[in-house]
């Protein structure tokens, strides 16, 4: 789901993510027998029952919760719409109106998925990584570039220009970009998109296990 970045005690910057896609993946993984931890922002839908549920609010809190658990995970799927920027300062009291315009100063948040990719590259080990990308054009190319940039195994690129896919709807139209190229799936319920993603994750886990065995 989203993260909310507080400006003062009564205001925040957020986004339209509902949590549906992440929860669908968590539910399907749990159904397949995985021990699932959900790290969720303030979602508008209820999470499925899984082994562990960690509720967070901001990108900084999500960063801390995910990094703390990554080393003991086999797979990390970052379906959250993490804020890219947060207010440089949080006002301790409600900000009152003054001038006709107001300028907010924002600073970058930690890139959680990017950090996991860098750490894995540096150490040579770490969980299998799946990221999402919200795109409005050149979905395939942008997804492939994001996969390279973040050093992850799979990028699930959403076409958010469509009203029946992406944020806050029950269906999604995605292109899954992996090492061998990309596959564009038709418009599907998010539960089915979750199954398609996890089919590919399972294949990669089997491949990686075989590679590790061969190198022993
Ligand atoms: N992500 C993250 N930490 C952030 C921001 C994003 O882990 N601070 C993750 C998201 O959960 C998602 C992927 O990174 O899996 C999205 O990558 P990003 O480069 O932020 O893509 P977009 O949000 O699509 O934005 P941009 O327009 O910057 O490419």
User: How many beta-strand elements?
Assistant: 13
Number of helices: 5
* Percentage of β-strand residues: 15-25%
> How would you describe the shape?
globular
Spatial strand sequence of the major β-sheet: 5-8-9-11-12
Distance between the termini: 40 Å
Integer average pLDDT: 95
The main sheet comes to:
5 strands, mixed
Low-confidence stretches: none
The radius of gyration is 18 Å
Question: In oligomeric terms, what are we looking at?
Answer: single chain
The distinct ligands, each listed once, are:
cytidine-5'-triphosphate
Q: How much helicity do the residues have?
A: 25-40%
Could you give the order of the helices and strands? EEHEEHEEEHEHEEEEEH
Q: Which structural category do the helix and sheet elements fall into?
A: alpha/beta
């Amino acid at each position: 789901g989203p993260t909310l970045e507080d400006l003062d005690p009564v205001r925040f910057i957020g986004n339209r993510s509902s949590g549906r896609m992440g929860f669908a993946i968590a539910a399907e993984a749990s159904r397949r027998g995985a021990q699932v931890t959900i790290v969720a922002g303030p979602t508008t839908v209820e999470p499925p029952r899984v082994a562990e549920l960690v509720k967070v609010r901001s990108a900084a809190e999500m960063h801390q919760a995910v990094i703390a658990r990554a080393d003991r995970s086999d797979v990390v799927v970052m379906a959250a719409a993490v804020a890219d920027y947060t207010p440089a300062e949080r006002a301790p009291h409600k900000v009152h109106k003054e001038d006709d315009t107001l300028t907010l100063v924002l600073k970058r948040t930690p890139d959680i998925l990017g950090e996991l990719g860098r750490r894995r590259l540096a150490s040579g080990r770490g969980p299998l990584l799946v990221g999402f990308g919200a795109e409005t054009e050149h979905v395939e190319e942008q997804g492939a570039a994001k996969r390279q940039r973040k050093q992850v195994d799979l990028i699930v690129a959403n076409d958010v220009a469509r009203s029946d896919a992406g944020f806050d709807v029950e269906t999604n139209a995605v292109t899954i970009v992996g090492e061998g190229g990309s596959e564009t799936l038709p418009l599907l319920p998010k539960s089915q998109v979750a199954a398609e993603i996890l089919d590919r994750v399972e294949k990669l886990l089997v491949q990686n296990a075989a590679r590790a065995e061969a190198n022993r």
